């Protein structure tokens, strides 16, 4: 049977993008070849990657974004290395008696085509060195460079400010930098995804000083070649560690006594937030949406507010968009061969007709049902959605600020909407380990469904949310629910996958959705929770009305595409990063 990836490779063939110089011309690349090469690649440090096809299973949106960024770099033939731990323990979700349970399974990099290179050592006071196994996997112009060992633990294991978490972060930074040296690569730029990756910049700084550079000259150099990408809105939420923890876990890996003294001077009341260190060592700083860049509240060591530039996240179109839809975008010259919107994309979107849109949506429903047939709902049963039924979906992490419970506050209204419009509601998402409040919330939502005969047939929670299920819902459902508390979503990319797949979006104006103001999506807003709740039901009713009117449906989908296609494009994201890093105007 032909796989999804076979289809996308047919949609955009390698030979179609062989002349990538056009992409660089699009960003006015002048001397970039001198700054970015195979020997001096773009190096991307991240604590998680969500790319199950390559054996790496992250925990959420940051991991999915990391995987998409590497895929886009490969398509554009950018020399790119993604440095990340390979966690040998994966967490999987099941629902038992309407309660989330977790199962941990073991995985090995060798089973997914990773090549073992050698070991590097990480030092800990009063302990033997920890030996990290370095594996790599080369994919076109890009590669994964991973580290880990048998006791490394799963992603986000333990307390955020505990010793084991600090050990994982030190392993990524110092171990990852040693791995780069092992393969003979010097970073042209280091992109730090979140402050947990800061020890990569510290390792580079230590090497420069060890090789004879004055500490403060070295700091200037590292700052010029380091980008800090922030995905967290409030500095208070960042991990912080004690001086004793640094003395035990961090400082044994630093050779320069001057660097140790400099870091020691950043502590306040025996504590150091990693964001403080990151801000000091990265000149370029960006938030992952326009709203995020404006509202992120971070301070430097002097207490001055830090200014973030905005580079809104994007998605890899080949991975997340139905191949037939992506083919249409290319055929109608809505996007170019790089995945960038064409100069006349707005006019070409206006030429789309509703019959073609409906035909493509039917193909998406077939894809969804193929995946659902293999999956289990909250009762351990597989689900199939009728071709002529409408489908609402909520597919993202089950965390408080995303408010997955909102449509279930008034089950009578929800029941009426679903019954009157022959509609289903599919939920998918995981509660983080240890989040007892959201675990109870998930149980409450499932209990409400259980107590209602109609909802029990029409509302399905699909277990063990992952990339495959996320993509299936993006291409095969009709109306997406995205209602984070305004100001708390850094970006979010699930809504981008929905818009690219010709779905209607019901959303608050938060994260990347707020890049367009006023939004062309069906907005949920209000001055209090009650007003927002009423708005959700009104917009759900409106979405159903639109879907039953071809003229309105065609107009709504076109308006959303015109506004959001440039934001959705992962190639646009990469273009923005290259301009930010290399100073192109």
Automatic annotation (TrEMBL):
Name used for this protein in its record: Glycogen phosphorylase
EC number: 2.4.1.1
InterPro entries found in the cross-reference section: Agluc_phsphrylas, Glyco_trans_35, Glycogen/Maltodextrin_Phosph
Top-rank taxon, per record: Bacteria
Gene this chain is encoded by: glgP
Pfam families: Phosphorylase
Assigned keywords, A-Z: Glycosyltransferase, Transferase
GO molecular function per UniProt: 1,4-alpha-oligoglucan phosphorylase activity
Coiled-coil boundaries: none
Gene3D superfamilies, A to Z: Glycogen Phosphorylase B
